[in-house]
């Protein structure tokens, strides 16, 4: 930027005082100050935008590097899983003495059946006396039946 010393600023102020005049000099100085402030803000905005774009490019570059590294790790893990699966299948085939594609009916072994977790069996395992003592409802009631059950009898009504 241009280097203005005190002597140069005094010379410019003296020339401006003679050319513009003492009446309009404060207004012109204020206007010039506003314009210089706007120019400085514009320059700082441009610098900030350039810095943001540079950071964005760096982040994009870092993102691509991380994605490639993640893909490499995923491929390595997938290869290890595949090799472990093949080794397990081979060992299973060797132990069971049959090929991998055979069915359980051919070998005579019982087929695997998922244990069904039946909530009725679980509920039925609890004794009725325990449910009654703990206040667990044993039967479902409709809203109307519940109201009728707890409605006071006509003999108890107050006159």
UniProtKB/TrEMBL annotation:
Subcellular location: Cell membrane; Membrane
Chief place of localization: membrane
Residues in coiled coil: 52-79
Gene3D superfamilies, per database record: 1.20.5.3310
Cross-referenced Pfam families: TatA_B_E
Top-rank taxon, per record: Bacteria
Compositional bias of kind Low complexity: 144-159
Keywords carried by this UniProt record: Cell inner membrane, Cell membrane, Coiled coil, Membrane, Protein transport, Translocation, Transmembrane, Transmembrane helix, Transport
Biased composition, class Basic residues, residue ranges: 113-123
Region (Disordered): 102-159
GO cellular component: TAT protein transport complex
Membrane topology reported for the UniProt record: Single-pass membrane protein
Gene Ontology molecular function: any one: protein transmembrane transporter activity
InterPro entries cross-referenced by the UniProt entry: TatA/B/E, TatB
Gene Ontology process terms (BP): protein transport by the Tat complex
Oligomeric and partner information: The Tat system comprises two distinct complexes: a TatABC complex, containing multiple copies of TatA, TatB and TatC subunits, and a separate TatA complex, containing only TatA subunits. Substrates initially bind to the TatABC complex, which probably triggers association of the separate TatA complex to form the active translocon.
Function of the protein: Part of the twin-arginine translocation (Tat) system that transports large folded proteins containing a characteristic twin-arginine motif in their signal peptide across membranes. Together with TatC, TatB is part of a receptor directly interacting with Tat signal peptides. TatB may form an oligomeric binding site that transiently accommodates folded Tat precursor proteins before their translocation.
Family per similarity comment: Belongs to the TatB family.
NCBIfam families: tatB (TIGR01410)
The protein, known as: Sec-independent protein translocase protein TatB
Organism of this sequence: Kinneretia aquatilis
């Amino acid at each position: 930027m241009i280097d203005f010393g005190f002597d140069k600023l005094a010379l410019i102020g003296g020339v401006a005082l003679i050319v513009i005049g003492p009446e309009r000099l404060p207004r012109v100085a204020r206007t010039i100050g506003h314009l210089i402030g706007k120019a400085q803000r514009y320059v700082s905005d441009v610098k900030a935008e350039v810095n943001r774009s540079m950071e964005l490019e760096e982040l994009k570059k870092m993102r691509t590097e991380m994605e490639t590294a993640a893909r490499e790790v995923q491929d390595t893990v997938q290869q290890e899983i595949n090799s472990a699966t093949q080794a397990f299948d081979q060992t299973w085939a060797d132990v069971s003495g049959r090929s991998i594609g055979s069915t359980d009916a051919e070998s005579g072994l019982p087929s695997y059946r998922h244990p069904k977790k039946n909530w009725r069996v679980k509920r039925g395992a609890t004794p009725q006396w325990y449910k009654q003592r703990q206040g667990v409802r044993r039967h479902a009631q409709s809203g109307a039946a519940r109201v009728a059950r707890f409605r006071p009898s006509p003999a108890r009504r107050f006159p």
